[in-house]
Amino acid sequence: MTVIAEATLSTFTPAKDRQYHDVDGAAYYLPADKEEADRLNAQYLLLKDIFGGNAIYAPVALSGDEWVLDNGTGTGAWIMDVRSAIPPSISMYGVDLQTRLVPLNPPSNTHFLQGSLLDLPRDWTDRFSLVNQRLLVAALSQDDWKKAVSEIYRVLKPGGWVQILEVSGRLFTPEGRTDGHADMFNNIAGKIRAGRGIVGDCFEDIPDLLRGQGFRNVAVVEERRVPMGNKHGQVGERMLRNIVSLYQGMKSPALDCGTVSSERDFDKVVDAFEARCNESGGIETRWYAFCAQKP
Ligand SMILES: C[S@@+](CC[C@H](N)C(=O)[O-])C[C@H]1O[C@@H](n2cnc3c(N)ncnc32)[C@H](O)[C@@H]1O
Fold first, then answer.
1. Of 20, 132, 243, 255, whose Cβ has the fewest other Cβ atoms within 10 Å?
2. Which GO biological process categories is it annotated with (predicted)?
């Protein structure tokens, strides 16, 4: 693995109080700070509820001295949750561009490494029984997705499983209706991604990418459509809080690509979006879980 030097702060103008990272060649644009760690942890619990409580949904039974990898681990929330449900003899690895958000003193079978999921260690070939990868929607170009899937294939041992959870990079409105606030979000997020070559609807390509790489038993395990706002119960409220926090985290890259002219304008756009979701409901997020097996 190319071990990346200590991640530095972003070259784009950071919005007040937010920290981003800027690793050479990496397109990822969301913050890496305490606020984002809180958002990722809340999102982890929310998605666990939405997907029926299963952190491991690939049909894999882990035992003995097997290895498990979490690509783009973020705060390490998945690893720290899963390790309580599997034998302590299993070795857990989490890889991320930066490791600022992971637990400071992980248990002895748990290792967090700084590096890119596009270039995993050479000596990991055929090593892992399970690779988990979640929410790289703000990070990867089409070529990166191909590389990521080929690296996952390489590090899995024959018979090993990958599980991938993704979200559409767009928000959706009910069939045939447009909504200025959803359009604004999609426009801002779309411009940020376009400037960085990032694919927003990666979920559409994942099954073909997996099959093209040689995976078998490729399955879309679940699709979940989750509307936001206080008209949609607790899950709707939690989802709105999370998407509002995500939106706020897009402030610096949004200012940088000129979609809004000032921090104040951006804050107003996000406030109006939040009020709109609570007043009228109807704007939804779409989430997808896939799994596949290396023959
Ligand atoms: C939206 S967060 C999701 C974190 C975690 N998977 C979760 O579900 O909570 C995306 C993470 O991927 C990491 N990331 C982005 N590009 C990466 C790359 N090329 N290699 C490794 N990690 C990457 C980011 O630093 C960030 O922590």
1. 255
2. methylation
